[in-house]
Structures are given as structure tokens and as C-alpha cells.
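Try it yourself: sequence plus flavin mononucleotide, in.
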Amino acid sequence: MTSQKQMKIVLQMVSGYGGEFKTWRLPEAKADAYSDMDLYVELAQLAEKGKIHALFMADTPALVNDLETNTPMHSMDPLIAMTSVARATSHIGLVGTFSTTFNEPYNLARHLKALDVISRGRVGWNAVTTSTPQTAANFGTHIANRAERYERAHEMIEAVQSLWGSWGEHAYKHDKETGHFADSSQIKPVHYQGQYLSTVGPLPIPPSEQGQPAIFQAGPSGEGIKLAGRFASGVYANPFTIEESREYREILRQSAVEHGRSADDINIFTGFMFTIADTREEALARRRQVMNFDPVETEQRLDYLSAMVGVNLKSLDVERPLPQGVREMLQAHWQDPRSPRAVELLKEGYSPMDTLAMGVINYHPVVVGTAKDVADFLQEWFESGATDGFSIVPDLAHDGVKRFVEEVVPILQERGIFHKDYEGATLRENLDLPYQYGLREED
Ligand SMILES: Cc1cc2nc3c(=O)[nH]c(=O)nc-3n(C[C@H](O)[C@H](O)[C@H](O)COP(=O)(O)O)c2cc1C
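Structure, out:
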């Protein structure tokens, strides 16, 4: 047993492939993974072998990227995917994203609590307000302003948690002898009435092993931080530097305290992507292979990289290290926190193309290297107080999950910073979250 604080890890499932939307063409990939639920289940089982705390599914109910050559950004339906995985696993958590804007409390409360019961207490709800116009269009409306979206989000979580608590904790009797199935005096309507939402209840679903699902949140505005401080046990974030992440974590912890909770009740999971190979050269070569699938996009990315470092890289040989004089002219763009890393790599002698391949303009920090490089990165962020855990995204899930589980996890365990086994069988036990049933009294 160790008393050392250990990192928590959730695996982003994306659409069954990985975080890079062109890796589906690699020989290692299963090209039709999007519609192959067996593969999803296999990946989940593999992650469970590696004691990964939870699977994490982002979602936007709309087509938001070009499918001509890219894989989708999200699963076909997170609820259905989570349900399939729930029946084939026993310990790994299942955190799904469901919009507070484009749902009604009763259907959401019902889906998530039923899944929590079915999975024996392993569900988390990433409650996001959603700001994609395509999603709004699918629901015949437009994106409301931020204040309104967040007011509705507070109401949504209040209403859902009230419904979850509407079946009393001890109401489920199922006693054949006495013929008493349930104590209806403990199953009561909630009569929730907000400005945007209302529901009567009760919701006829008993508690799960963890009581009810845990709440997660994503969205870094002031309103998002308040929502997280009030309700969230986990926050999914995408900082690019340790300093940025540390600051955000402190703000979130403070927000939890302001809402009458303990700072430790809130865990930040920073997004992180990786490509693992036996050597750094091989890892980089794989990313170059993926870039070759789309030369037009690579051209556009070179333009973007040029803006990030203040030099027109396309006027130079993009396959060679920059001349010394040019390296001295490089300047990180103050508005993009990824720019200093790009400048650093170019100064170290990476060519512009290799710098791109190192993932400097991905939407999370990227490590391209060996399993040890990945473990070192995670350890540095974790031990510097930047984060409580990680939301990891392999470039391609089909081999990335296996490599992470078989190669990175043992290193982290050896270093004492990742658990060797699940602490319990529920998500709350494994993330060390307090038990909760219904809406907290303070709320
Ligand atoms: C790391 C991260 C992940 C997110 N994932 C999702 C998602 O899966 N689905 C979704 O609809 N919105 C997602 N969002 C968007 C939020 O719902 C929110 O609309 C957006 O961040 C704007 O929030 P803000 O007003 O707090 O800035 C995500 C946001 C962040 C920062």
C-alpha cells in the first residue's frame, strides 16, 4: 500500500479510432471501427485490464467535421455505446457527455440512472452546455447566449439530481415473503419548477451501488467554473502548459470551496494525446505517414505554424532544420499557448514538417515518442500540481490503447504514481468521490 497521491486516468473513446482523424488509414487501423461495437468493447476491456479509471465520451449531436476523408469526432451515440460496454466490463467507469441545453431533465435522468444501475454504479455525466450551431439547428433552434445556457445548465443538474433522489434510498424492498415490492411512501414526486425547466417525477429507478452518477463538466468560462464548483467531481480541460493548468486547477478548487464543498472533491483531467513507438524516430515517422494522407491540410497547417512562430516557413525548405539566422527571428505568438513549444522545437533543429508532426497544433499537448517519454510527461504534469489526472487520447486507439496499457501503465505503477488495482467497483470509489444521493441540501 502506498500513501502517495496517485494520478487518475480516463481514456477518451472518440469515435472508435483516436484523436487523429486520419489515422484510420494506417495499416494497424480497423477502417470501419465507427460502426463496430465489438471493437469498442474490446478497447474498453483492454483499458480495464490496465486499471484505467474510466472511459470518456465527448459528444455533440450533429455532424461537425468533414467525413469525406476524416473519421467522425464522436461515437454514433454515447448512451448506446456506454450501455454495450457496461455489460462487458465490471470496474471501469463510463463517463458520457450529454448536453444540458439539448435534453429534457426526465429523459436524461432516466437514461443515466438506469445505466448507472445496469453498470452497478460506474456512470459519470459530463454536463456541457454545448455551443455548436449545428447542434442547435438539429433541435430547431439557435445557440442562446452564455448566461442563459448556464442558467439552464444549473436547472438541468438540479432537476436531474432531484429526480435521481426521488426514489428513496431504502424504498426498494422486493420482499417475496411479505409481498412488499417497494415502499411508495419513499417514492415521491419532486415538483421541480425552474425558469426554463420543470418536471414532476418521481423517477421510478432505485439507487445504484454508488447512489447516482457523478457529475463532470467541461467549459472554462467564469460561468463554467461556477457550474463545476457547485456540482462537478471531474472537470475535463484542455490546457497547453503546466502553468496554465495549475492556475485553472486552483480556480476550480476555489470554486468548489465557495460552493460549500471540499477543494479535493473536484478533480481536473487534462487532455493529452500521444503516439507511442519503440523509438522517437519511429513515432515521428508514423505521424509523418499520417500527414502524407492529406497534403492540402498539411499546407494549411504550415501557414498556421508560420503565424504561430512569426516567420513565413513556406519560403524556406520545410524539410530541413531552419538556418541559424532564421531560428533567432522566431517569436512565439502571444495569443496561442502552443506557440512556445513550436518555437522550442524549431530552435532545437526540428524541420517545420517534423515540428508539425510533433503535434504542436493539436487540441491537446502531444507526446511523440516512447512509452517512457509518455510516462515522463504524465509524471511531470502530475507532480507539479498541474492536474489530478489525464484524459488520454491515443492517435489511433487500435494499437495506442494496447501500448499505453502494456507499456506506459507498468512504468507509472512502478513509479508509484498510478494504482495497481481498482480501489472498488464503483466510479465514486475509484475516483475517491463522496457518496451522494439526490440533490445536496445546500443546492
Ligand atoms: C475540454 C472541453 C471539452 C468539451 N466537450 C464537449 C462535448 O463533448 N460536447 C459539447 O457539446 N460541448 C463540449 N464542450 C463545450 C462546452 O459545452 C461549452 O459549450 C464550450 O466550452 C463553451 O463554454 P463556455 O461558455 O464555458 O466557454 C467542451 C469544452 C471543453 C473546454
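One thing you can check immediately is this: The longest strand covers residues 267-276.
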